[in-house]
Amino acid sequence: MQMAKRYTRKIFDMFQKEVLSSMQYGTMLKYSEGHTQVYIVKRAGDSIKFREVLYNPSDHVITCSCKKFENKGIPCSHIIIVLRNNFIDCLPEYLILERWTTTAKSKIVYDEFGVELQGHSASSTWKGKKHLEIARGFTECLNDAPIEVCNAAKEMLNDLQNMKASYGACGSNNPLQSRSTSIPSSVNVYPPNISKTKGSGKRLKGGGGRNSNGRDGKEENLQHMR
């Protein structure tokens, strides 16, 4: 009931699947080191595959080797079963990401790079994703990069900062936006140019044309029918 009221419908359905899946697992305390307990989590009947869960009962900090929470932001079934076996019926607050809750639209949420995520604004969400994509791209590019690449990246960053300053912090002084485009009050429409081709301008005899006597073809046909 706790998460049914806090998670959005879609995220709650995903969380429910993890809860149901957790019932298929068993836990075994492997060892304790200080305040940290290390559990082995295995599916019933599976003697090979297992997950390792680290749990600190003093502050309820818990992590799993599957890294599902770190990657998707939803507690995995392994974490859920360890918490349940330690008589923890409610998820610790840090396991409930604000961006998956029903109140996320009324609050400002930041990702791990400090980029603002707002569910109610499609443009801000797209912008935040772009920031994250670019930041990750730079990080991957600079990992183990030679000094020349690092210097080039630093120069590029300086150029981007100067460009941002010239455009204004929020884009309000964007010189592209200050340009005006005049719209004409009227538009003149001219007939298309007629190109002369062989045979153009000749009227076909019969139906609607005139015969050699100058009489209209339709009129002559009516007289023959009388």
Automatic annotation (TrEMBL):
Keywords: Metal-binding, Nucleus, Zinc, Zinc-finger. It is found in: Nucleus. GO terms for biological process: regulation of DNA-templated transcription. It holds the Pfam family SWIM. Residues 51-87 form the SWIM-type domain. GO terms for cellular component: nucleus. InterPro entries: FHY3/FAR1, Znf_PMZ, Znf_SWIM. Belongs to the FHY3/FAR1 family. This is Protein FAR1-RELATED SEQUENCE. It comes from Acorus gramineus.
